[in-house]
Specification:
The chain is mainly alpha-helical. The chain has a domain of about 90 residues. It is built from seven helices and no strands.
């Protein structure tokens, strides 16, 4: 059975490595979050992210795009990622363009033998 992290049932659940499951931190300000993010990024496990110059905004954008690609509404994405409606619409436009491009490529691949360009045909027109 699934239990929410804040519920009593969750708190009574099995301990991990002898410790209680870690609860999500809430931040009272953007500075508090930024400080925690910088501490996390300074750890060895995040070395690849640092070297790739990955910033929090990139991760948030990718999360929004992934949510849109799996079918979440713009309102849902905005609520989950704390983004403005305009920002979600911008990312939605990007997702729609990629989706159209993928569909076009699938159609082209499926019908390639019918539309084979002249440059790929042999001398007999076949």
């Amino acid at each position: 059975m699934f239990s929410c992290p804040g519920s009593q049932e969750f708190r009574r659940s099995k301990k991990v490595d002898g410790r209680c499951p870690r609860r999500a931190l809430s931040y009272k300000s953007a500075d508090g979050f930024r400080t925690e993010w910088q501490k996390l990024m300074a750890k060895e496990q995040c070395k690849r992210l640092r070297e790739g110059r990955i910033v929090f905004h990139d991760l948030r954008k990718n999360a929004a795009i992934n949510l849109l690609e799996v079918g979440c509404t713009e309102n849902q994405v905005g609520a989950i990622c704390s983004m403005s409606a305009q920002m979600v619409r911008d990312y939605g436009r990007e997702v729609a363009l990629w989706s159209l491009a993928k569909d076009a490529m699938k159609l082209t691949e499926a019908r390639w033998s019918e539309i084979k360009p002249a440059a790929f045909r042999n001398k007999n027109g076949m």
